[in-house]
Design a protein that fits this description.
This protein has 78 residues and is an all-beta fold. 0% of the residues lie in helices and 44% in strands. It has one domain. The protein has no helices and 8 strands. The chain is globular, with a radius of gyration of 11 Å. It starts with 5 loop residues before the first strand and ends with a strand.
């Protein structure tokens, strides 16, 4: 089932928040840790600032988590 648009909550575990083939923009109230694989090593991860829209290009799945606690995010169509 496609992820589509909408809201969700990030935790300290990676979860898929964008799919290949569907460009979206992600905005989270906390800094996000991003990867293209949920088992990515720290060198294969990147971070993105809180409240700054992150545009995906739709070429790969995107997984995200937060460093601690939980944080709401919004996924909108690009």
């Amino acid at each position: 089932m496609p992820l589509g648009t909408g809201n969700g909550t990030l935790t300290t575990s990676f979860q898929k928040i964008a799919e290949a083939g569907t460009p979206v923009t992600l905005t989270c109230t906390s800094a996000m840790i991003l990867a293209n694989d949920p088992a990515a090593a720290s060198g294969e991860q990147s971070s993105w600032s809180a409240n700054v829209p992150y545009p995906t290009d739709g070429t790969k799945d995107v997984y995200a988590k937060v460093a601690s606690g939980t944080a709401p995010y919004q996924r909108t169509q690009s």
